[in-house]
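[Structure tokenization] protein backbone as discrete codes

[Encoding] learned vocabulary of local backbone shapes

[Begin record] amino acids and matching fold tokens:

___
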Amino acid sequence: MNSTELKTKVDRLAEEFEDIKNSLNLGNKKLKLKEFEIKSSASDFWNDQEKARKLMQEFGDLKNEIDDLETISSNLETLLGLAKEDTLSEDFVNDVDKLEKKFEKFKLKSFLSGDYDSKNALVAIHAGQGGTEAMDWVSMLFRMYIRFCEGKEWKTETVEVSGGEEAGIKSTTFKVEGSYAYGYLKGEAGTHRLVRQSPFNADKLRQTSFALVEVLPELEETDSPGIQIKEEDLEWQFFRSSSQGGQNVQKVSTAVRLKHVPSRIVVTAQAERYQEQNRKIALNLLRAKLWILEQTRKENEKRDLKGEYKPASWGNQIRSYVLHPYKMVKDLRTGVETSNAESVLDGNIADFIEAEIISGLNNKTIN
């Protein structure tokens, strides 16, 4: 790339960054950061440790975003000054490449502007057609997402797991704590299809399995004032947890099953050691599912299946994973594909996720 092209690239980056910076309103973010600092210095801040921990996560996310904004702005200012010189050094070329990569990552996050995109995520995976094969497929997807979250340095916690009779998992729900976890993962909602030689069949026949992935934002009561949950609409059941946790968990009925009578939604939580904690998790799960139902209703009214929200339904197949007779993973919405299926199943799904985020933004712009 010659000097003229490099200077043009720096100018383009500066122009794009200015647009994004204006849309993010750096001044408001700094004011919010000061509010967080005042709250965290209060003497009673840690009285409610769970609330305090969540506020500290928001504080950290906001501070990182502001730091990124200011770092990119400072680097751009330096490069714009150097670009005026007649001769550009090799260091200048390297610095432009580094800044461009950092800017692209930051730009991607700026696309996540939904009401709850910055929230933690609740991910549920359910076995579909395929029997034991499908349950094994759920365990493979579970591992894939856990690996992806580990790579992002996000914390994961299993909320509920129901094992298969012979192998695999019938269904599982886990929480993902991280910056913009819901915004990044929500595009994974839908049906995932696996084609492979069956490891459970002596003849090793080709088998097709399906699993449904649901992605919900973790919502507190204050996050969703429009979602009303009446105590008289709830049916609670308590049972002994089947999850790991030692003998103390097995001796008492700590696990919770909650049914919302009007919607017939049933949720289960059994990961925590105490019943009250599982009750709270179950209520948050129910709140998120009711919110999803409301979004589906609104989208159906618009009759727009390509809009911002895509419900997780069996008819909404989003990705195909083929391990036999050839290897390929292909996203049916964006067209992104790779022959390195093993890498994908090891959690390297960023290309698919990022392409769907950009695709969703384009669809929203068009609509």
